[in-house]
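Severity: low
Component: inverse-folding endpoint
Summary: output formatting inconsistent between runs
Steps to reproduce: submit the following structure tokens with default settings.
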């Protein structure tokens, strides 16, 4: 895999992780613990 593709993939995965974390935090605040925890395994 080329360095450019590796870097783009890493950036994409970090963006996804940030979105998943934000979603988990929102679900947790709504006391939807099971759904928030399921995000941890996405």
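Observed output (run 2 of 3):
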């Amino acid at each position: 895999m080329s360095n450019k593709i590796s870097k783009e993939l890493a950036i994409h995965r970090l963006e996804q992780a940030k979105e998943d974390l934000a979603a988990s935090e929102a679900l947790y605040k709504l006391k939807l613990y099971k759904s928030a925890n399921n995000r941890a395994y996405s």
